[in-house]
Specification:
alpha+beta; single chain; 3-stranded antiparallel sheet
Amino acid sequence: MIKNPGIQLQLCRITGSIMLLLCIFSLQAQTYDTAAVRPDADTIKAKNTEIGIVFSYKGDLFSSKEVTEVMKICPEAYKAMLKANRQFSIYFITGILASAFSGAAVGWMIGAFLRGTGVLISDVIIFAANGALGISFGIMSVTFRNKYRKTLYSAVDIFNRNARQLTSARSITLDLGLTCSGVGVKVNF
């Protein structure tokens, strides 16, 4: 604890200044983030989070199934998204199998030690078989997870490119014609 009140006051000022700067920078980052989202309102954003990949479209959060439905307007992106969904299914199943076989290998050895008869050759063989299956399914799972993410981001990118082309390709048509009350002008955006 610092006994000098002058030093305590200076430390309080420095700490307060740092806190104020942190608050200003966080508000500024939020402002830029929201400003960056608005111009591309018709695009899909896929963000990797702790709970998985989160999708947003027109400011709302969407599930993978809902994003797949949205992508139906772009056939190329829709095909890529269906492929990504198939890869996710394989990734999920192989991940469960990897966990099951690895858990069985470890559980079998713990059971062998708890049995009290020592580790038999059959225990080692079962441990090695379950361990090998767990490792191989784990490698497959990681491979399919990487393929899934790559295909998913590719589908989102294809959709966003097509969405930008559609919004930039909007044209203005001007129709002139005669009506019963005179000359008519019709403008289509």
